[in-house]
Design a protein that fits this description.
By secondary structure, the chain is an alpha+beta fold. The protein has one domain: Nuclear Transport Factor 2, Chain: A, CATH 3.10.450. A hairpin with a 2-residue loop joins strand 5 and strand 6. The chain is globular. The two termini are 13 Å apart.
């Protein structure tokens, strides 16, 4: 959950898996009209996002956009945990099966990365997820916040908080 304090700074609650993370503060609001390209934002007190983490996030977005479940699971540890609202998947095989099932229903996916925040082996991502249903042709969009943890450069924990109601609000509303 994100709230704002009296100064207008965002305060993020419910991130128990991240013990220490410098959250980006005093950043200008992200525009709802961002181009369809990846961006990285960081607070003045921290270094830019590690290029390896940025590449991992970009690989994940591209793998979902190209419906490539093998590339999705390539970035995950064997004993990983992948959580989305209403579902929990343990290990690469369960993630692959879930992704393949998704691709059978919604072949067109577009992801716009809005922000990556990382410190050490933990981090958060904001991205917009757009999809088109294979059967109906219906398009939908969701704002998605992801918490992740890496182990030896692989994703050990990935949890998504998907908001389908706040369409088009941008990274900060």
């Amino acid at each position: 959950m994100v709230n704002s304090d009296a100064s207008g700074n965002d305060i993020i609650y419910g991130l128990a898996c991240i013990s220490v993370i410098d959250l980006a503060t005093n950043l200008p609001p992200a525009s709802a009209n961002l181009p369809n390209s990846s961006i990285t934002m960081h607070s003045p007190q921290t270094q830019p996002v590690d290029p390896e983490i940025q590449q991992l996030v970009e690989r994940q977005a591209k793998a979902w956009e190209t419906a490539d479940s093998n590339k999705i699971i390539a970035d995950f540890a064997d004993d990983c945990l992948f959580v989305v609202p209403g579902s929990l998947f343990r290990g690469k095989q369960e993630i692959k099966e879930a992704a393949d099932s998704y691709f059978a229903e919604s072949p067109e996916t577009k992801i716009t990365i809005k922000r990556i925040i990382a410190k050490g082996n933990e981090g958060a991502i904001e991205w917009t997820w757009s999809e088109k249903d294979k059967e109906t042709g219906e398009k939908s969009q969701a704002e998605d916040a992801i918490i992740f943890e890496l182990e030896s450069g692989l994703i050990k924990y990935w949890r998504e908080y998907i908001d389908k109601e706040s369409k088009g609000l941008g990274a900060r509303g």
